[in-house]
Protein backbone atom coordinates (compact mmCIF):
# COMPACT_ATOMS: atom_id res chain seq x y z
CA UNK A 1 0.00 0.00 0.00
CA UNK A 2 1.40 3.42 -1.03
CA UNK A 3 2.23 5.71 1.87
CA UNK A 4 0.62 9.15 1.39
CA UNK A 5 2.50 12.26 2.51
CA UNK A 6 1.52 15.90 2.62
CA UNK A 7 3.12 18.05 -0.11
CA UNK A 8 5.39 19.83 2.38
CA UNK A 9 6.57 16.60 4.01
CA UNK A 10 7.22 14.97 0.64
CA UNK A 11 9.47 17.88 -0.40
CA UNK A 12 11.41 17.57 2.86
CA UNK A 13 11.77 13.80 2.50
CA UNK A 14 12.91 14.12 -1.11
CA UNK A 15 15.63 16.49 0.12
CA UNK A 16 16.67 13.95 2.77
CA UNK A 17 16.71 11.19 0.18
CA UNK A 18 19.00 13.17 -2.11
CA UNK A 19 21.26 14.13 0.82
CA UNK A 20 21.60 10.51 1.98
CA UNK A 21 22.58 9.33 -1.51
CA UNK A 22 24.99 12.25 -1.92
CA UNK A 23 26.72 11.58 1.39
CA UNK A 24 26.85 7.84 0.74
CA UNK A 25 28.71 8.53 -2.51
CA UNK A 26 31.06 10.98 -0.72
CA UNK A 27 31.97 8.32 1.87
CA UNK A 28 32.48 5.68 -0.84
CA UNK A 29 34.72 7.92 -2.96
CA UNK A 30 36.82 9.05 -0.01
CA UNK A 31 37.19 5.43 1.12
CA UNK A 32 38.91 4.67 -2.20
CA UNK A 33 42.02 6.69 -1.29
CA UNK A 34 42.08 6.04 2.47
CA UNK A 35 45.04 3.77 3.27
CA UNK A 36 44.14 2.81 6.84
CA UNK A 37 42.04 -0.38 6.66
CA UNK A 38 39.97 0.39 9.76
CA UNK A 39 39.15 3.88 8.57
CA UNK A 40 38.25 2.56 5.11
CA UNK A 41 35.90 0.00 6.69
CA UNK A 42 34.38 2.69 8.94
CA UNK A 43 33.66 4.95 5.97
CA UNK A 44 32.11 2.13 3.94
CA UNK A 45 29.90 1.18 6.90
CA UNK A 46 28.65 4.77 7.16
CA UNK A 47 27.98 4.75 3.40
CA UNK A 48 25.85 1.62 3.82
CA UNK A 49 23.84 3.32 6.56
CA UNK A 50 23.31 6.37 4.36
CA UNK A 51 22.05 4.20 1.49
CA UNK A 52 19.76 2.32 3.88
CA UNK A 53 18.30 5.63 5.07
CA UNK A 54 17.79 6.69 1.44
CA UNK A 55 15.80 3.48 0.83
CA UNK A 56 13.56 4.28 3.80
CA UNK A 57 12.85 7.73 2.37
CA UNK A 58 12.24 6.23 -1.08
CA UNK A 59 9.56 3.94 0.37
CA UNK A 60 7.63 7.14 1.18
CA UNK A 61 8.41 9.27 -1.88
CA UNK A 62 8.23 6.43 -4.43
CA UNK A 63 10.68 8.40 -6.55
CA UNK A 64 14.16 7.73 -7.89
CA UNK A 65 16.55 10.60 -7.23
CA UNK A 66 20.17 11.34 -8.13
CA UNK A 67 22.96 12.51 -5.78
CA UNK A 68 24.26 16.07 -6.02
CA UNK A 69 27.47 15.41 -7.94
CA UNK A 70 28.76 18.95 -7.35
CA UNK A 71 28.69 18.32 -3.59
CA UNK A 72 30.32 14.92 -4.07
CA UNK A 73 33.20 16.44 -6.02
CA UNK A 74 33.51 19.34 -3.55
CA UNK A 75 33.82 17.19 -0.40
CA UNK A 76 36.07 14.65 -2.12
CA UNK A 77 38.46 17.44 -3.18
CA UNK A 78 38.44 18.97 0.32
CA UNK A 79 39.19 15.53 1.77
CA UNK A 80 42.21 15.14 -0.52
CA UNK A 81 43.59 18.59 0.33
CA UNK A 82 42.72 19.05 4.02
CA UNK A 83 42.19 15.44 5.09
CA UNK A 84 39.12 13.25 5.27
CA UNK A 85 38.55 13.76 9.01
CA UNK A 86 38.16 17.52 8.51
CA UNK A 87 36.00 17.15 5.38
CA UNK A 88 33.59 14.59 6.84
CA UNK A 89 33.19 16.27 10.21
CA UNK A 90 32.53 19.57 8.45
CA UNK A 91 30.02 17.91 6.14
CA UNK A 92 28.22 16.22 9.05
CA UNK A 93 28.16 19.44 11.08
CA UNK A 94 25.84 20.89 8.45
CA UNK A 95 23.13 18.47 9.59
CA UNK A 96 22.89 19.69 13.19
CA UNK A 97 19.82 21.79 12.45
CA UNK A 98 17.91 18.83 10.98
CA UNK A 99 16.73 17.44 14.35
CA UNK A 100 13.68 19.73 14.51
CA UNK A 101 12.70 18.78 10.97
CA UNK A 102 12.93 15.06 11.82
CA UNK A 103 10.64 15.69 14.80
CA UNK A 104 8.10 17.49 12.63
CA UNK A 105 7.84 14.80 9.97
CA UNK A 106 7.85 11.93 12.50
CA UNK A 107 4.07 12.42 12.78
CA UNK A 108 3.75 11.11 9.23
CA UNK A 109 6.90 8.99 9.14
CA UNK A 110 7.54 6.95 12.32
CA UNK A 111 11.01 5.89 11.09
CA UNK A 112 12.18 9.53 11.07
CA UNK A 113 13.06 9.55 14.77
CA UNK A 114 15.06 6.34 14.44
CA UNK A 115 17.00 7.76 11.50
CA UNK A 116 17.60 10.99 13.45
CA UNK A 117 18.98 9.03 16.40
CA UNK A 118 21.13 7.02 14.00
CA UNK A 119 22.56 10.21 12.48
CA UNK A 120 23.23 11.80 15.87
CA UNK A 121 24.72 8.80 17.60
CA UNK A 122 25.99 6.03 15.35
CA UNK A 123 27.60 8.08 12.58
CA UNK A 124 29.13 10.61 14.98
CA UNK A 125 30.63 7.76 17.00
CA UNK A 126 32.09 6.25 13.85
CA UNK A 127 33.55 9.59 12.73
CA UNK A 128 35.17 10.07 16.12
CA UNK A 129 37.18 6.85 15.80
CA UNK A 130 38.79 7.90 12.52
CA UNK A 131 42.55 7.71 12.94
CA UNK A 132 43.92 9.86 10.13
CA UNK A 133 47.70 10.01 10.17
CA UNK A 134 48.04 13.77 9.64
CA UNK A 135 45.98 14.47 12.78
CA UNK A 136 48.51 12.51 14.85
CA UNK A 137 51.01 15.21 13.95
CA UNK A 138 48.82 18.24 14.69
CA UNK A 139 51.00 18.88 17.75
CA UNK A 140 54.07 19.06 15.51
CA UNK A 141 52.30 21.39 13.08
CA UNK A 142 51.16 23.63 15.94
CA UNK A 143 54.74 23.76 17.21
CA UNK A 144 56.11 24.80 13.81
CA UNK A 145 53.29 27.20 13.08
CA UNK A 146 53.19 28.96 16.45
CA UNK A 147 56.98 29.25 16.68
CA UNK A 148 57.22 30.71 13.18
CA UNK A 149 54.40 33.16 13.84
CA UNK A 150 55.78 34.38 17.16
CA UNK A 151 59.46 34.42 16.23
CA UNK A 152 59.24 35.78 12.71
CA UNK A 153 56.42 38.28 13.27
CA UNK A 154 58.56 39.77 16.02
CA UNK A 155 61.72 39.68 13.91
CA UNK A 156 60.08 41.24 10.85
CA UNK A 157 58.35 43.93 12.91
CA UNK A 158 61.64 44.86 14.57
CA UNK A 159 63.55 44.84 11.28
CA UNK A 160 60.86 46.92 9.55
CA UNK A 161 61.67 50.03 11.55
CA UNK A 162 65.34 49.26 12.09
CA UNK A 163 66.13 48.73 8.37
CA UNK A 164 63.24 50.53 6.59
CA UNK A 165 63.96 48.73 3.34
CA UNK A 166 61.86 45.83 2.06
CA UNK A 167 64.74 44.06 0.30
CA UNK A 168 66.97 44.14 3.39
CA UNK A 169 64.09 43.06 5.64
CA UNK A 170 63.21 40.17 3.28
CA UNK A 171 66.86 39.06 3.10
CA UNK A 172 67.26 39.12 6.88
CA UNK A 173 63.89 37.41 7.35
CA UNK A 174 64.72 34.64 4.88
CA UNK A 175 68.05 33.89 6.53
CA UNK A 176 66.38 33.84 9.95
CA UNK A 177 63.47 31.75 8.66
CA UNK A 178 65.58 29.10 6.90
CA UNK A 179 67.91 28.75 9.89
CA UNK A 180 64.95 28.53 12.28
CA UNK A 181 63.23 25.91 10.07
CA UNK A 182 66.27 23.64 10.20
CA UNK A 183 66.66 24.26 13.92
CA UNK A 184 62.99 23.54 14.70
CA UNK A 185 62.94 20.42 12.52
CA UNK A 186 66.04 18.93 14.14
CA UNK A 187 64.81 19.84 17.64
CA UNK A 188 61.44 18.17 17.00
CA UNK A 189 63.22 15.08 15.64
CA UNK A 190 65.37 14.74 18.76
CA UNK A 191 62.40 15.45 21.03
CA UNK A 192 60.16 12.89 19.31
CA UNK A 193 62.93 10.30 19.32
CA UNK A 194 63.62 10.77 23.02
CA UNK A 195 59.88 10.42 23.73
CA UNK A 196 59.89 7.04 21.99
CA UNK A 197 57.72 8.00 19.02
CA UNK A 198 57.70 5.49 16.17
CA UNK A 199 58.26 8.04 13.40
CA UNK A 200 60.34 10.94 14.73
CA UNK A 201 61.36 11.98 11.21
CA UNK A 202 57.70 12.52 10.26
CA UNK A 203 57.14 14.67 13.33
CA UNK A 204 60.15 16.76 12.31
CA UNK A 205 58.90 16.92 8.72
CA UNK A 206 55.44 18.20 9.71
CA UNK A 207 57.05 20.79 12.01
CA UNK A 208 59.43 21.94 9.26
CA UNK A 209 56.72 22.11 6.57
CA UNK A 210 54.40 24.16 8.82
CA UNK A 211 57.31 26.48 9.66
CA UNK A 212 58.56 27.04 6.11
CA UNK A 213 55.06 27.66 4.68
CA UNK A 214 54.38 30.21 7.42
CA UNK A 215 57.75 31.91 6.87
CA UNK A 216 57.16 32.13 3.10
CA UNK A 217 53.71 33.71 3.46
CA UNK A 218 54.95 36.25 6.00
CA UNK A 219 57.98 37.38 3.98
CA UNK A 220 56.11 37.55 0.65
CA UNK A 221 54.89 41.18 1.02
CA UNK A 222 58.46 42.35 1.62
CA UNK A 223 59.63 40.53 -1.52
CA UNK A 224 56.82 41.71 -3.80
CA UNK A 225 56.39 45.37 -2.81
CA UNK A 226 58.83 48.22 -3.57
CA UNK A 227 61.62 48.80 -1.03
CA UNK A 228 60.11 52.05 0.26
CA UNK A 229 56.72 50.46 1.13
CA UNK A 230 57.99 48.78 4.29
CA UNK A 231 55.10 49.97 6.47
CA UNK A 232 52.54 48.59 4.00
CA UNK A 233 54.47 45.32 3.99
CA UNK A 234 54.35 45.26 7.78
CA UNK A 235 50.57 45.77 7.77
CA UNK A 236 50.08 43.00 5.18
CA UNK A 237 52.40 40.71 7.13
CA UNK A 238 50.40 41.22 10.35
CA UNK A 239 47.13 40.62 8.48
CA UNK A 240 48.67 37.43 7.05
CA UNK A 241 49.55 36.32 10.59
CA UNK A 242 45.94 36.79 11.72
CA UNK A 243 44.60 34.93 8.65
CA UNK A 244 47.02 32.01 9.13
CA UNK A 245 46.04 31.73 12.79
CA UNK A 246 42.33 31.92 11.91
CA UNK A 247 42.65 29.29 9.17
CA UNK A 248 44.64 26.83 11.24
CA UNK A 249 42.51 27.37 14.35
CA UNK A 250 39.39 26.69 12.29
CA UNK A 251 40.91 23.52 10.81
CA UNK A 252 41.88 22.15 14.22
CA UNK A 253 38.56 23.17 15.79
CA UNK A 254 36.64 21.16 13.17
CA UNK A 255 38.96 18.15 12.88
CA UNK A 256 39.53 17.74 16.63
CA UNK A 257 36.29 19.40 17.85
CA UNK A 258 38.03 22.06 19.96
CA UNK A 259 37.09 25.66 20.72
CA UNK A 260 37.91 27.95 17.79
CA UNK A 261 37.70 31.24 19.74
CA UNK A 262 39.99 30.15 22.57
CA UNK A 263 42.70 28.85 20.23
CA UNK A 264 42.46 31.80 17.84
CA UNK A 265 42.59 34.60 20.42
CA UNK A 266 45.38 32.91 22.35
CA UNK A 267 47.66 32.49 19.32
CA UNK A 268 46.76 35.87 17.81
CA UNK A 269 47.28 37.67 21.12
CA UNK A 270 50.74 36.20 21.64
CA UNK A 271 51.93 36.75 18.04
CA UNK A 272 50.70 40.33 17.76
CA UNK A 273 52.00 41.25 21.23
CA UNK A 274 55.47 39.98 20.36
CA UNK A 275 55.33 41.87 17.04
CA UNK A 276 54.39 45.11 18.83
CA UNK A 277 57.17 44.73 21.41
CA UNK A 278 59.73 43.91 18.71
CA UNK A 279 58.63 46.92 16.64
CA UNK A 280 59.26 49.16 19.66
CA UNK A 281 62.67 47.52 20.17
CA UNK A 282 63.46 48.25 16.51
CA UNK A 283 62.64 51.92 17.04
CA UNK A 284 64.80 52.09 20.20
CA UNK A 285 67.75 50.28 18.61
CA UNK A 286 67.73 52.61 15.61
CA UNK A 287 67.35 55.70 17.84
CA UNK A 288 69.94 54.95 20.51
CA UNK A 289 72.57 53.32 18.32
CA UNK A 290 72.16 55.97 15.67
CA UNK A 291 72.27 53.43 12.84
CA UNK A 292 71.06 54.84 9.52
CA UNK A 293 70.79 52.43 6.60
How would you describe what is shown here?
This protein is mostly helical. The protein has helices at residues 7-33, 37-61, 69-82, 84-93, 99-105, 111-128, 133-136, 138-163, 166-194, 200-224, 230-255, 260-289. It starts with 6 loop residues before the first helix and ends with a helix. The model has no long low-confidence stretch (mean pLDDT 80).
Keywords:
293 residues; mainly alpha; 0% strand
SSE blueprint and pairings:
Blueprint: H1 7-33, H2 37-61, H3 69-82, H4 84-93, H5 99-105, H6 111-128, H7 133-136, H8 138-163, H9 166-194, H10 200-224, H11 230-255, H12 260-289
* Mean pLDDT over the full residue set: 80
- Percentage of residues in DSSP E strands: under 5%
Main sheet characteristics: none
N-to-C order of helices and strands: HHHHHHHHHHHH
Terminal residue distance: 88 Å
- Estimate the helix proportion, in percent: over 70%
Summarize the structure.
With 293 residues, this protein is mainly alpha-helical. The protein has helices at residues 7-33, 37-61, 69-82, 84-93, 99-105, 111-128, 133-136, 138-163, 166-194, 200-224, 230-255, 260-289. The chain is 82% helix and 0% strand.
